[in-house]
């Protein structure tokens, strides 16, 4: 028998955002977070993989650099056994090929200082920006040219009701940023869509943070008009879609569903707003609590794994304010929100992967009215493609 | 060099039962056991996979139902996080798609009771029969029509010498059924053939149950004529092959083999009889002891795994008889027979898989005279094919 | 984007040793070590895999035999559950197919001594040589004919400066051989090349054995002329390449590299010499200490794994000398050299595999002057090919 029980109705729809559906490995030529600053001590090397690119991060004299993590000699990872013999260089632990962190040039070979290859070969380097405790790397085509500013790959700057105060932007002065990141099973797009998704509140209905704070959580939020999801396209700047939860005229919460005898829980109203930005960055304003913002990055590792980044930020001008945020991060935000609350999302994303991988989910899904903002995101993302990551594997068994 | 050391002589023979050789994923359009009744409590959902079909079992108001275990929305398994909000429905834990267990129709979406998709979409359902503590599901083509009766997919009813008493049939009244099931590596056909196989006694020669009961175990049993294996084809009923061990005129036991200086062990004669039935059900009459019958199901999960079911049954009219059987099951049949004895078969089946998978075993085997009943089974099974299970995977890496 | 960051310059070079690059599964029609004699007790069966050949070793009446480890019947491994019922035979544990160890013929079937297949079928056998505690098997084409002598697949006999004494050869009388072997990730060629490699001293710079003995370890050794690597081609005998470290006129040690501010460590000079022989056998004369020789075999298992053999040998004429060597092996050579020192090589080899497997490393490497002897080895090996091992898998998913 044929597997006709997996037919969805979406096959014809995907043409509206075909470039997005093809981006299994992610969007090339963008800035992605690679490490927290605290993870890269001076004098060491750490390896990450972004969109199939194996990248070695090296801090030298305080500054962070990024190079290909594959020695040109025989392809071992430089980060497999970090060897930093002098400032400004990374040495391969196997045969001593030594590269300049500035331009990747082969400056010496430890055991053969007069080797004829020296000065005639180089490893690839990547642009790096380090800001507010996060190290970003621009990953993509070697011949891409000057990368656009980091800010164009972060959510836009917003001033948010109801406080009418500016939300902490990751490049602001006088803010504090804390967070975690982890490797998950699942394509980066499934993670990004889950982040924006207005229809998945059910997976959070029993989360401890909501129960403890008695937060009102509707069963769903109904968009009343097409304006509920705003498409934002800033020239030379961020591109994203925003659920305008700040506009009560655009949404109606669903508080009960008699058909299955279920009602919304909680009594304390809490305002927040979500938006998703190319190449896969979520902003949740006023979350986990008012005046804090949560950013999430869904960084493609390969076509079936992503690095899930969760950071929270707020304004902080004094040491006391920073210490208070640190304390709340360790004992409230991290255990109850980044882990407790978002682990429900992690479960959902990993559970979705199999269908999209093995059953061609992009052409076998059956979206509903609640998916309006996900469709808007797909179309927006499809229009703003700088390039694809592709599988780097040439000869795999 | 080529791998010529794996050449068997069977390549030309397989044409006699070609449909059977093609049935890697199993026989579609048959009844298969899915769960024991005790494994499915009221108000919950359990997932199983049969022939590539992911199936969710749900008990509601005492009755067992079977639906596709893939939400039509984004393909997650309903059973991954069971959510039963009302009688007669299963709700997907991710976005609240809620299905009727009767016909699979989408009856509501928790967070959006007015969604336009409601009433216009459905999930697939499967016919279910529950009898004597076992839940059977009819799995196959969605358009197959009315399934044949469950009884046609079970071994036939027999009255067996030497007692001339009817053997407990799984659909009888006044019987008791106990058993276990487990997922094994190995194609379902290798398991089924091992069950019937008259030539594999050697793997059992040191089993504790035989040593403890001093049972006589010959080295082999020689069929004297072609009638030793009977082909049974009941119109609109079971199809199978039976080793007529009840006919001493047809078999001669082998008690010694001087070439390797080995003799049969044990002194207590014990009568039993084996038969194998489409779509892969073994009956061993008078096993593990006289007046008990052991049934085995080799339920295909995918092309390399099967669910191995072992159940024992006997007639029981009183609570005392049932209690006695329960006690014997826990302290004798299960540890010494279903596990102790049959674990030798499990070892053999799993050891056989690699050759059939990697070395095209169906065309590279060298059968001998002892394999007459396996050949008979293959031909019988090839003639009674209602359909194939096929790989449901569309886009696997 | 394309994965252009993995481009090496070697693509055009590989034509000089193309047959070697094609030998993913190893060189067929050679002698390979299969087991230490102590690993094969009389009356048992052990299984090994060499170049994709599953081979069962059986000792009967003191003599070692090798047969295919796949029963012709249904392909299970004989070694999965050893069954030796009589001298000179191996019996399959599943259905009792019994083979003569001499010629592999099917001499009986335990449960059916009169089966018509008996005498008309056979399993493949392999030539075996057992010498000084090691069991070698000749593995390759079934129709290869008489194998060349074992000695042609071992390193040549040498008399070595500075002692001008003959180095212990594995086929000599009055020597003692001890060692270990283990399965590693990585193609056999990457392991062999690492063994010979004059450029990888850096991975050993902090090894405990060197630090404890204060051995002088240069950063590298520069070949001054092309004669530094000698190609040795003995008619009807061993073929190999030798780093002529015994010739101070050919090499210059590198003791410092100011560019990265590193100097060689250690003060005690120690003489040794390395050579690599077809089909992948390393000889390190005077290692780990003077008058001991270390041999290493990189035996292909499949295209991504090899069995790593390390043996040390020396001359020993008395029981006292043998006992002293045994004691040193257990408490010095094995922990500090075969494990401690060579574990750095194991790490390096396993780290190299990914690049050669997934990124077509043979055409994407960038060799340097220090790789002269590896290039010489590849060319030598390419000229002396008796055949390829090939993948035995026919029908893999």
UniProtKB/TrEMBL annotation, chains A, B, C:
It comes from the Bacteria. The keyword Cytoplasm does not apply. Keywords: 2Fe-2S, Iron, Iron-sulfur, Membrane, Metal-binding, Oxidoreductase, Transmembrane, Transmembrane helix. The lineage of its organism: Bacteria, Bacillati, Actinomycetota, Actinomycetes, Mycobacteriales. This is 2Fe-2S ferredoxin. GO terms for molecular function: 2 iron, 2 sulfur cluster binding; metal ion binding; monooxygenase activity; oxidoreductase activity, acting on paired donors, with incorporation or reduction of molecular oxygen. GO terms for cellular component: cytoplasm; membrane. Gene3D superfamilies: 2.20.25.10, 2.20.25.680, Naphthalene 1,2-dioxygenase Alpha Subunit, Chain A, domain 1. InterPro entries: Cholesterol_7-desaturase, Homotrim_ring_OHase_catalytic, Rieske_2Fe-2S, Rieske_2Fe-2S_sf. Residues 31-137 form the Rieske domain.
């Amino acid at each position: 028998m044929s597997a006709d029980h997996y037919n969805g109705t979406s096959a014809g729809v995907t043409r509206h955002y075909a470039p997005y559906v093809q981006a299994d490995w992610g969007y090339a030529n963008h800035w992605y977070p690679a490490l927290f600053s605290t993870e890269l001590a001076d004098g060491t090397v750490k390896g990450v993989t972004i969109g199939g690119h194996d990248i070695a991060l090296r801090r030298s004299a305080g500054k962070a650099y990024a190079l290909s993590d594959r020695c040109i000699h025989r392809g071992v990872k430089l980060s497999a056994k970090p060897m930093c013999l002098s400032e400004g260089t990374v040495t391969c632990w196997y045969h001593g090929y030594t590269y300049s962190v500035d331009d990747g040039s082969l400056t010496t070979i430890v055991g053969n200082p007069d080797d004829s290859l020296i000065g005639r070969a180089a490893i690839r380097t990547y642009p790096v920006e380090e800001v507010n405790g996060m190290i970003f790397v621009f990953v993509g085509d070697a011949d891409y040219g000057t990368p656009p500013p980091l800010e164009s790959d972060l959510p836009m700057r917003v001033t948010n009701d109801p406080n009418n105060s500016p939300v902490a932007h990751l490049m602001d002065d006088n803010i504090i940023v804390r967070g975690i990141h982890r490797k998950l099973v699942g394509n980066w797009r499934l993670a990004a869509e889950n982040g924006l998704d207005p229809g998945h509140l059910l997976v959070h209905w029993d989360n401890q943070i909501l129960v403890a704070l008695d937060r009102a959580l509707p069963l769903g939020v109904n968009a009343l008009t097409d304006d509920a999801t705003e498409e934002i396209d800033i020239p030379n700047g961020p591109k994203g879609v925003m659920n305008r939860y700040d506009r009560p005229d655009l949404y109606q919460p669903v508080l009960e569903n008699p058909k299955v005898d279920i009602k919304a829980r909680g009594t304390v109203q809490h305002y927040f707003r979500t938006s998703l930005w190319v190449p896969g960055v979520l902003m949740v304003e006023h979350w986990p609590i008012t005046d804090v913002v949560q950013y999430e990055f869904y960084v493609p590792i390969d076509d079936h794994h992503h690095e899930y980044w969760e950071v929270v930020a707020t304004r902080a001008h004094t040491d006391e304010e920073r210490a208070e945020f640190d304390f709340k991060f360790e004992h409230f935000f991290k255990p109850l929100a980044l882990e407790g609350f978002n682990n429900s999302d992690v479960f959902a994303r990993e559970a979705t992967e199999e269908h999209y991988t093995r059953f061609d989910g992009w052409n076998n899904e059956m979206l509903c009215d609640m998916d309006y903002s996900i469709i808007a995101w797909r179309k927006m993302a499809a229009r703003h493609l700088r390039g694809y990551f592709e599988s780097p594997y040439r000869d795999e068994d």
